[in-house]
Amino acid sequence: MSGLNDFLHLQVGGSSTSFEELGTSYSGLSGKSGDDFGKGKPYITYLNIYSNSIVNEEQVDYVVIGDNEKQNTLLYGDLLFTLSSETPDEVGIGAVYLGESDKYYLNSFCFGLHMTATNKVYSPYLAYLVSNSVFRKFIYPLAQGSTRFNLQKNDFMKKKFSLPTFENQKEIARTLNALSSKLETERKLLLNYQEQKQYLLGSMFI
């Protein structure tokens, strides 16, 4: 899957742009103490972003948010990135939010990008942008530190990268979504065959 993702991006190419030209950044939760967590409103965890290229709305924790408290919430098509890690290759891991709800907050160790140039960005495609090897190489030099590495967000927003046309983004997403669905179907079939095999083997020795 990752190989095809890289191949498609190499084939279609793109034009030079930056996230500063495509949207605006926002921070995660601020001003919270340990007592605020474990109850209240749902927020997207660091692990959720680190583990998924598309945000999993079931993988959340909870935080107390006051009635008059100003905290940022996610919008459809937002890109979320990890800010720090113990190794530079784990900094700037991204995931796109494709849910319809604006009720989710963002953990303190990540930041979000709200895409304002909607005529240039096809939101479902972003899951494949952040996971291709060229984009990972784009981020790697922006991780700075010694014992712990942090993403330099200002440099990240300004740095140029190649973005396919809107139509090519749709085509890449359509192709890779179809392959992903096919692989998931095959995986489920394999599990069913394995369960059937175990049942039949067990029946032989009754």
Task: Describe the 3D structure.
With 206 residues, the protein is of the alpha+beta class. 37% of the residues lie in helices and 22% in strands. It has a four-stranded antiparallel beta sheet. A three-stranded mixed beta sheet has the order 4-3-8. A hairpin with a 3-residue loop joins strand 10 (143-145) and strand 11. The longest helix has 39 residues, at 166-204.
What characteristic shape results from the CA principal axes? globular
Instruction: Give the helix/strand class.
Output: alpha+beta
**How far apart lie the N and C ends?**
42 Å
Question: What level of helicity do the residues show?
Answer: 25-40%
What's the helix and strand layout?
Layout: H1 2-12, E1 15-17, H2 19-22, E2 23-27, E3 37-44, H3 46-51, E4 60-63, E5 79-82, E6 84-85, E7 94-96, E8 105-106, E9 110-115, H4 126-129, H5 133-139, E10 143-145, E11 149-151, H6 153-158, E12 161-163, H7 166-204
Parallel strand pairs: 3-8
Antiparallel strand pairs: 1-12, 2-9, 3-4, 5-7, 5-9, 6-11, 10-11
Keywords:
7 helices; 4-stranded antiparallel sheet; alpha+beta
Task: Please give a quick description of this structure.
The chain is built from seven helices and twelve strands.
